[in-house]
Every structure is written in structure tokens, then in C-alpha cells.
Amino acid sequence: xxxxxxxxxxxGKIYYFNxxxxxxxxxxxxxxxxxxxxxxxxVVVGAKEIPPEQLNKPLKDVIxxxxxxxxxxxxxxxxxxxxxxxxxxxxxKKHGLEMKLIEVEYTFDGSKILFYFSxxxxxxxxxxxxxxxxxxxxxxxxxxxxxxxxxxxxxxxxVCGRELCCAKFLGEFEPVSxxxxxxxxxxxxxxxxxxxxxxxxxxxxYEQDTYEELIKITxxxxxxxxxxxxxxxxxxxxxxKGKVKVRxxxxxxxxxxxxxxKDIKIIKKGKVDNDFEKKxxxxxxxxxE
Length: 289
Known about the structure:
Mean pLDDT: 89
Radius of gyration: 27 Å
Strand order of the largest sheet: 2-1-4-3-5
Shape: elongated
Distance between the termini: 38 Å
Strand content: 25-35%
Low-confidence stretches: none
Largest sheet: 5 strands, antiparallel
Helix content: 25-40%
Order of helices and strands: EEEEEHEEHEHHHHHEEEEEH
Number of strands: 13
Number of helices: 8
């Protein structure tokens, strides 16, 4: 099955379509039919063939390669979004709603305008929708988004000093958990492991596969191990270096020596570190939501 991958936002999810007989190349713009209607998107994955069983559902066809008129219409819609944003801000203030407008998006054919907002709880925006429909004379849709999506849309600089990963290159959010921070030996201080959005940092996921593999072969602190110099207890672990420091008894004296993980054998596993209170764990769990 031949496919092309299309994005509708600079760092959005990639959707796949059937290129039909069009000679579509990477970075071309195409007009396609989506669940929201007719849309213009950028090809980020050039035409390639994949086994049909890899597809979750039948692909929709590419309608056409975008013309100059299509691209000009898209630019016009972008300009109109700025005006719609200002008008909606004014209406929100008028209705006294506790919500923060994040983004406005016109569908390609102008049949619908989507207003994305964030809020602490549920918001009754029925009167706002009626008001906006009166102004724009088209279908209006309001969508409440989460704090992660808000950060992705607005963008910012992370604690690392670089642009947020979600706004720069992450097409989709992947699950991140407290377990990852614990296994990577990071401080469980919420200010240390949470991102600009207030949730766990997405970058905890990047090295997790490596840590999971190392955990299988690396003894924990407190483990009893057999070394080339005899039996001892693991005092320090440098997981990424593949080294451990073991207190070994030699001639009735304990000496601390460093060994490669491959040179020792685990006799008894060490205990998992659970040195934080239950209330702290519950607070940290909130960062995953």
C-alpha cells in the first residue's frame, strides 16, 4: 500500500493518506479530506510502500496537490484567525468566563472555526458560542485542551535553556511516570522533574529504555555480590558507567573497591529505595495527570 504522511500543524501528529496517482514529494502541500472536513497539509513523509496490515483503518485519498490559490486561501485564513482571536477574547470577558483562550483555527474551506481554550474545570460556554456564531455566521466549536497541549501550542523555553521539546519536534505526547524518575536516580523534588507545563518532563522518556536494560543487569545499593576479591555489599552504583563500588572484607578489614558490573555476580538483591513519604508520593503522582 502506498502512503504519504501529512501534518496540519508544524509540530503536529502525522496522518497518512493514499497519494493515488499524484507525484507527491516531501515538503509538497496537499489538499485532503479529514474528519473535520477539507484541509490543507504539508507532506512530511514522502510516498512509500508499507504492508496493508500495518494500517489501522482504510486510508482516505489525497484530493489534489495544493495550487497557488489553495496556499493563498490558507494564508488568508491565518490572517483571519488573529482577528477572531481578539473578538473571542472580548466576548469571553463580556460573559465573565473563567477560561484562557489559547488558539483559533479556521478550517480550510471556512465551514468551521475552532477555538481552543484551557480552564481549571468545566465551563458553560453555550452563550459564548451563540454570540460568536452571530458574529462569524459559520459553525463554531470550542475545545478545552490540557496544560500539556497549552504549552505545546504557546511554546516556551525549558529549564534546559532550549525550546520546549513538545513545541519543537514532539508530534505526540508519550506517557511519563514517577517510576521513570526513580529508576533514573533523579531527585523526586517536583520542581526538579516537572516542566514548564507543571507536569513531568517529557525528556524523562528519552533514556528510559536504556535504564530499563541496565536495571536488569546492575545490582542495587545494598545487594550482596560476589567479586574477584570475595563477597561484599554494594555501596554505590554508577549505572550508566556500568560500575559499582563494593565493600569487600579482606583479612578481616573492609575495603571499598570499584568493579565493572560484568565482573561481579549478584547473590542477594538489594532493597528498592522507598525513602519518600506517602503524602509526597501522592503529590508527585499529580504531575503525571
